[in-house]
């Protein structure tokens, strides 16, 4: 591949920074004896510098060599998850303790099986005891409440009997029931005996329970209910809830059958009950005794279970680490090709060139430690396959690299935008967020994460907190640049300060009566740094800042787009792609600067000369009437001629981008195929075989001229249109900066100063709280997020599309560090 050749000779075009180009990669082959394969993969996994290729892609997971070992690891991982869930339920946190002694994998498997069996048995006994305990508690409630029912009924019956006897002694009364003597004299053996069912029913079902009972028995029942004040744990479901103790009186077996079915349907737990008061007391005493015994037994069981879980928790992390490590090793071994005759495994993979010696050392150590008779073989393979992209980053640069990778991973050894993003991203953010008071607040917030990063990195944070912590250095750079641009704008929570000297302007007289009408006069030298504080609050503030920030946005945008086009030149030089340099880089540079580079020049000249020329008029009539006299809008000598030349260059650059490249690519394709056909006639069999392989690799994709031309046409039209739209897109710097400044000014003047004017401490405190909440919620959170997203858009669309292809894939090495990060 051209990129590999360019990596050695073309490196002079870029600064020697690791992030500028991805690491040079090589395809390596390892031939590993089977007896040392496991240990070799373990050592390579600790290095984390080799990405293995799957050589068994045609086999299903169940057909691979180490499928049984992976199944074992999966079963052990399931047991460990079971232990973790049990510890979580018991409120036990696994201790982070290093494993002192090396644990054998087979021994660990047997130990986990024993612990799981013991824990399951303990849980089963505990659940059985707990269910019995809950049943006894319910039974006790039924005995107490139903006993009260029967006791009150007997008391009422006794009182009624006494009343009847008292009446019978007296004279005959007209109110006396006619059948009273017959009722009293009825034989007890002929009286209808009522049965009853007692138990508990959930309170929310009690009304429906009563209604269904009434309908099923056609009213031939009597239901008595009483609410239990405290929640009751259901023995079956284990859920707590309010319940009613009920007693249903009925007559006949059919009614009994219906009532039992209704109780079952409503989840009502039934318990036996006797009418004998003495037996009731005896049963209550027995139930209370059994409850006390069960409580003691359950407590002992819980202590035993907690002790068992604590012992597991001491070594849980080390066991989990070992199982994950073993599973990843066997999963990687399944990607290797098994050579049965030679009793060895063949591996292929990508590694950085600098890691070759480290990988070889790991192979030698594995061969020695496993007492293998034969050592592993390490050799470099030649390949035309596109290597993965690998950048060596640290905790500072990794967040900026992630911002770029979110758009797309760089092609192998393509120029990396992250190098410039480290500076340009926080700077463009700060242009929109410029306020050194808000910048200090951001800096203090991010310094908290930076100072405590060692502690926080080992903790599990929430999604938003973890995202903020990961980008702590990005936020730090954003805050520092915001302080700088805030000093340039001279804004501290929208309040200007004379930090670098006195203002250059003053009133015409001591009373300043005509300051708002006639304006101020310049009495000193120009303010040395940033915006003069006298502009803030004046009638000319908005027009002045509008003009300043709008022109500054165009200058920054054109500069960054030129940088993007310049990076395409470095890419073409590095990959030795002359077509892209001559027919993409040069015409794009000419077109962009003929229009907007010229506009940037006029802005700078106007600032330096103080001219009152209308730049809108100049740019519009540059195209509509290029031969007309400029008059008062002329800024430089020969401007009219210069404009005609620039228009001509811009017009020439469009066909320059469109036509030559497709035809030259077609000619290169034909020349390459003609050269190969000649080589086939005059070469040996070996050479011809190599050329045929090379020919087949190029011939897989046939050259379609129409497709290439249409692609180039789209690319040309896209660049011409984007030159205008991208430049206009940078005006968001002006818009968001103005919005941030005006919002800050509104909160300061309409909240804080307004509250201060009332001379009331309560109103002042309320105003201060509102001001702080508005500043944090709107300016430091919402505005930060808004400026961040807009800066992200400017980098992804306006900057990176000038040179960044982003069609690569990330280097994903086999590493135990990444295995540990996975949950």
Automatic annotation (TrEMBL):
It is found in: Membrane. GO terms for cellular component: vacuolar proton-transporting V-type ATPase, V0 domain. Residues 105-132 form a coiled coil. It comes from the Eukaryota. Keywords: Coiled coil, Hydrogen ion transport, Ion transport, Membrane, Transmembrane, Transmembrane helix, Transport. It is a multi-pass membrane protein. InterPro entries: V-ATPase_116kDa_su, V-type_ATPase_116kDa_su_euka. The chain crosses the membrane at residues 427-451, 472-489, 552-573, 585-605, 641-659, 761-782. The keyword Ribosomal protein does not apply. One of its GO terms (molecular function) is proton-transporting ATPase activity, rotational mechanism. One of its GO terms (biological process) is vacuolar acidification. Pfam families: V_ATPase_I. Its main location: membrane. Essential component of the vacuolar proton pump (V-ATPase), a multimeric enzyme that catalyzes the translocation of protons across the membranes. Required for assembly and activity of the V-ATPase. PANTHER family: V-TYPE PROTON ATPASE SUBUNIT A, VACUOLAR PROTON ATPASES. Belongs to the V-ATPase 116 kDa subunit family. This is V-type proton ATPase subunit a.
């Amino acid at each position: 591949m051209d990129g590999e050749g360019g990596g050695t000779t073309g490196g002079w075009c870029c600064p020697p920074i690791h992030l500028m180009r991805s690491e040079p990669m090589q395809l390596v082959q390892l031939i590993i004896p089977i007896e040392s394969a496991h240990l070799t993969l373990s050592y390579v996994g600790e290095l984390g510098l080799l990405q293995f290729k799957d050589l068994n892609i045609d086999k299903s997971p169940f057909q691979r060599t180490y499928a049984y070992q992976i199944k074992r690891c999966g079963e052990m991982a399931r047991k460990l998850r079971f232990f973790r869930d049990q510890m979580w339920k018991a409120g036990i946190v696994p201790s982070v303790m290093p494993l002192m002694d090396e644990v054998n994998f087979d021994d660990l498997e047997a130990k986990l099986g024993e612990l799981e069996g013991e824990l399951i048995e303990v849980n089963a006994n505990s659940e059985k005891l707990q269910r019995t305990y809950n049943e006894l508690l319910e039974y006790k409630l039924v005995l107490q409440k139903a006993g009260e029912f029967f006791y009150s009924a007997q008391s009422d019956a006794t009182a009624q009997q006494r009343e009847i006897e008292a009446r019978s002694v007296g004279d005959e009364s007209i109110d006396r029931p006619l059948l009273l003597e017959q009722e009293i004299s009825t034989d007890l053996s002929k009286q209808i005996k009522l049965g009853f069912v007692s138990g508990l029913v959930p309170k929310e079902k009690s009304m429906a329970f009563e209604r269904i009972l009434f309908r099923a028995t056609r009213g031939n029942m009597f239901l008595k209910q009483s609410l239990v004040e405290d929640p009751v744990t259901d023995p079956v479901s284990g859920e707590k809830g309010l319940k009613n103790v009920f007693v249903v009186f009925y007559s006949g077996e059919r009614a009994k059958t219906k009532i039992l079915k209704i109780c079952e349907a409503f989840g009502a737990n039934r318990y036996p009950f006797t009418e004998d008061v003495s037996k009731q007391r005896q049963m209550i005493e027995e139930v209370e005794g059994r409850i006390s015994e069960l409580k003691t037994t359950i407590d002992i069981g819980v202590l035993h279970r907690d002790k068992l879980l604590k012992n597991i928790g001491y070594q849980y992390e080390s066991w989990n680490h070992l199982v994950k490590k073993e599973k990843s090793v066997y999963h990687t071994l399944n990607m290797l090709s098994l050579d049965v005759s030679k009793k060895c495994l063949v591996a292929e993979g990508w590694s950085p060139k600098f890691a070759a010696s480290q990988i070889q050392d790991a192979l030698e150590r594995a061969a020695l430690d496993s007492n293998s008779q034969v050592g592993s073989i390490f050799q470099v393979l030649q390949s035309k396959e596109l290597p993965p992209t690998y950048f060596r980053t640290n905790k500072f640069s990794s967040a900026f690299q992630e911002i770029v990778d979110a758009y797309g991973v760089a092609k192998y050894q393509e120029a990396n935008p992250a190098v410039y993003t480290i500076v340009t991203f926080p700077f463009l953010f700060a242009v929109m967020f410029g306020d050194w008071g808000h910048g200090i607040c951001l800096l203090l917030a991010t310094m908290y994460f930076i100072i405590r990063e060692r502690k926080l990195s080992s903790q599990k944070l929430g999604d938003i907190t973890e995202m903020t912590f990961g980008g702590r250095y990005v936020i730090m750079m954003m805050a520092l640049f915001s302080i700088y641009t805030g000093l340039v704008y001279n804004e501290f929570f929208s309040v200007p300060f004379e930090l670098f000297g006195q203002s250059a302007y003053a009133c015409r007289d001591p009373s300043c009566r005509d300051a708002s009408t006639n304006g101020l006069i310049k009495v000193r030298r120009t303010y040395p740094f940033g915006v003069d504080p006298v502009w803030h609050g004046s009638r000319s503030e908005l027009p002045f800042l509008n003009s300043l920030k709008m022109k500054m946005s165009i200058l920054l945008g054109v500069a960054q787009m030129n940088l993007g086009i310049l990076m395409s030149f470095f890419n073409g030089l590095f990959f030795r792609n002359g077509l892209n340099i001559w027919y993409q880089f040069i015409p794009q540079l000419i077109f962009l600067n003929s229009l907007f580079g010229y506009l940037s020049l006029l802005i700078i000249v106007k600032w330096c000369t103080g001219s009152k020329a209308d730049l809108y008029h100049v740019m519009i009539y540059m195209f509509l009437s290029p031969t007309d006299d400029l008059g008062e809008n002329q800024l430089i000598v020969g401007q009219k001629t210069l404009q005609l030349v620039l228009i001509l260059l811009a017009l020439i650059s469009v066909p320059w981008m469109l036509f030559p490249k497709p035809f030259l690519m077609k000619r290169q394709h034909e020349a390459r195929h003609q050269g190969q056909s000649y080589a086939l006639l005059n070469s040996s069999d070996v050479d011809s075989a190599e050329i045929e392989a090379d020919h087949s690799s190029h011939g897989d994709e046939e050259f379609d001229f129409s497709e290439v031309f249409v692609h180039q046409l789209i690319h040309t039209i896209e660049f011409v249109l984007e030159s205008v739209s991208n430049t206009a897109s940078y005006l968001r710097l002006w818009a968001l900066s103005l919005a941030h400044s005006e919002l800050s000014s509104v909160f300061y003047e309409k909240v804080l100063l307004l509250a201060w004017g009332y001379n009331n401490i309560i109103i002042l405190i309320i105003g201060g709280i509102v001001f702080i909440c508005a500043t944090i919620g709107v300016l430091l959170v919402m505005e930060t997020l808004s400026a961040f997203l807009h800066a992200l858009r400017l980098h992804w669309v306006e900057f990176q599309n000038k040179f960044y292809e982003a069609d690569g894939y990330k280097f994903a090495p086999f590493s135990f560090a990444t295995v540990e990060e996975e949950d």
